[in-house]
Automatic annotation (TrEMBL):
Every Transcription factor NikR nickel binding C-terminal domain range: 61-136
Keyword Transcription regulation: yes
Cofactor(s) essential for the protein: Ni(2+)
Protein name: Putative nickel-responsive regulator
Protein encoded by which gene: nikR
Cofactor binding description: Binds 1 nickel ion per subunit.
Homology family: Belongs to the transcriptional regulatory CopG/NikR family.
GO molecular function per UniProt: DNA binding; DNA-binding transcription factor activity; nickel cation binding
Function: Transcriptional regulator.
Length: 140
């Protein structure tokens, strides 16, 4: 635990299937405890947040998103968000992975702060399982 001097205890509630998947990954990766895995996950989340925060200037990129097709109201909300950012969204591709799981790929271009806003709005929706933003700078 580099840089950590003090430990704090927290309690969290998780759905059983999520905890089971997490425990399976911990076992496969050789973690000695859940706490070690949770600390590593939190560090990774913080790093990802810092990386996405550095998206600035004119950018071209892609948002990949996996979501539950059956989540009430989600499709309408995702469509509304994309329409609000129509000037930044160039195209999207929708694929049915399973009966209720969908993969969507959204091509985007614009100011990095706007692209980050789109990503965070999509990420915040209940039923969205994963969102990833990948961009490169547009060089003039």
């Amino acid at each position: 635990m580099s840089g950590d001097t003090e430990l704090s205890r927290i309690g969290i509630s998780l759905p059983k299937n999520l905890l089971d998947k997490f425990d399976e990954i911990l076992s496969l990766r050789g973690y000695s405890s859940r706490s070690e895995g949770i600390r590593d996950s939190i560090r990774s989340y913080i790093t990802h947040y810092q990386w996405i925060s550095d998206v600035k200037g004119e950018r071209q990129g892609v948002i990949t998103m996996v979501y539950d097709h059956d989540q009430r109201g989600l499709l309408q909300t995702l469509t509304e968000i994309q329409h609000q950012y129509a000037s930044s969204i160039q195209a999207s591709l929708h694929s049915h992975v399973t009966h209720n799981k969908c993969l969507e790929v959204i091509l985007i271009r614009g100011d990095g702060a706007v692209l980050k806003d789109i990503t965070e709005r999509l990420m915040a929706q209940k039923g969205v399982e994963a969102v990833k933003l990948t961009t490169i700078p547009v060089e003039g």
